[in-house]
Amino acid sequence: MVNMEKVKDASTLMSGAFINLINGSIYLWGTLAVYVTSYYRLKENPELSTATSGILFAVACAMQAVCMPFSVQICKKLRFRYAFALVGAAFTLCMLISSFMENFWTFFLFYGFLFNIFNGVIYLAPVYVACRLYPNS
Q1: Are 1 and 110 in contact (CB under 8 A)?
Q2: Given this model, what pLDDT does residue 114 score?
Q3: Which among 75, 68, 70, 89 is positioned nearest to 132, based on CA atoms?
Q4: Which end of the chain is more exposed for a tag (fewer CB within 10 A), N or C?
Q5: CB under 8 Å to 94, separation ≥6 — which residues?
């Protein structure tokens, strides 16, 4: 017979692993910045520089760092399974919305700011869950 509690724990842990894969997208900014900057130069602001768009990475890291200390506490209040679903949906929605933005600064708001607030909130939770479920591993 399958232990449903173990299945729930494993599915929560796998959800956390997938969330961390998505979280890794911010570290690709060094590669993406040139293309995103070029797009917004052609679309709406020929004066936009890579130095200006590079600010996005600093803001993203700052938002993550500000929110990370609250990650586990927020997830405990929401219960980890629901937190992964809710916060995962929120930052996926932010990423989706940012892909439709025609102005760099609205893109910056959704991808550089809001996405990374949710990213910071959920970032450490999968590690906490893994340590709690598999303390000897």
Answers
A1: no
A2: 93
A3: 75
A4: N
A5: 110, 111, 114, 115, 118
